[in-house]
């Protein structure tokens, strides 16, 4: 028995030392490493986004910027936070946690609306535009167009409003691209082109004015139409909110999905885009919302 004790004692000692080391490795010691790994994930993903989408839009740099800041913070955390008073540190961390909670709650609603199913026999389909490349619709836009073709073939009495003007880097307007795409697939004589809009708000506003007449009377008529809005899955919460603001009442949604690898990018972008539209347009009356921009 003594021999057995002498053999097993070193192993118990090593295990006890290991447990002590794990206990002393608290969360504060691990935080810089976790933040650094998260930063590199954001950075590498951001580089992939830039290689896929290009450098034309500022938000394409978002993941690269966030990743770089997280990596820098992981190295500077102690010197940066160490100079702050405890009360300031707690306030800063509280604001960060509130921001994360705000983001997560918003994304829950974005996902909820992304899972919506359209009602059949709509009077009008509002097809929201997206990027047009030299060789045709972008991947995101093609997915929307394919969804529109599917719905319109199953609902031959529905009219479609193809929304979207011509951007500086686009060969033709998004509405004309949509019309050409739909016509080639047998959808004819029920396409309305809306070619003046440059963003989602203008898409919805111009569609409402096109259906209801001048902006002074449109709010009183658009509620009579049963509409389906077709757009990318991440886009539908904002589209629905804007459509309600414009006076539409009977609204259902149909989602499309582009590249799965870009979903995190688009869902992050939608948080900022949604709240920007809410802050800008929430105070407006319906008539102000539909009024032409100066």
Show the helix and strand layout.
Elements: H1 2-24, H2 27-53, H3 62-82, H4 86-114, E1 124-127, E2 132-133, E3 136-137, H5 139-154, E4 159-163, H6 174-184, E5 191-194, H7 200-212, E6 226-232, H8 236-246, E7 250-256, H9 263-281, H10 286-290
Parallel strand pairs: 1-4, 1-6, 4-5, 6-7
Antiparallel strand pairs: 2-3
Helix pairs in contact: 2-3, 4-9, 7-8, 8-9
Plain-language structure description:
The protein has helices at 2-24, 27-53, 62-82, 86-114, 139-154, 174-184, 200-212, 236-246, 263-281, 286-290, and strands at 124-127, 132-133, 136-137, 159-163, 191-194, 226-232, 250-256. It has ten helices and seven strands. The chain has two domains: 2-83, no CATH class; 124-290, HUPs (Rossmann fold, 3-Layer(aba) Sandwich), CATH 3.40.50.620. The N and C termini lie far apart (94 Å). Helix 7 runs parallel beside helix 8 and helix 8 runs parallel beside helix 9 (263-281). By secondary structure, it is α/β, with parallel strands linked by helices. The chain is globular. 31% of the residues are buried.
Q: How many domains is the backbone divided into?
A: 2
What would CATH call the homologous superfamily of the largest domain?
HUPs
Q: What are the segments in which pLDDT stays under 50 over at least 5 consecutive residues?
A: 1-8
Provide the CATH topology of the largest domain.
Rossmann fold
Q: Give the averaged pLDDT, no decimals.
A: 85
Q: Total helix count?
A: 10
How many beta-strand runs?
7
Largest sheet: 5 strands, parallel
Task: Give, in order, the helices and strands.
Answer: HHHHEEEHEHEHEHEHH
Shape: globular
Distance between the termini: 94 Å
- Oligomeric assembly: single chain
Structural class: alpha/beta
According to CATH, what is the class of the largest domain?
Alpha Beta
Strand order of the largest sheet: 5-4-1-6-7
Gyration radius, in Å: 26 Å
The CATH architecture classification of the largest domain is 3-Layer(aba) Sandwich
Proportion in β-strands: 5-15%
The helix content, as a percent range, equals 55-70%
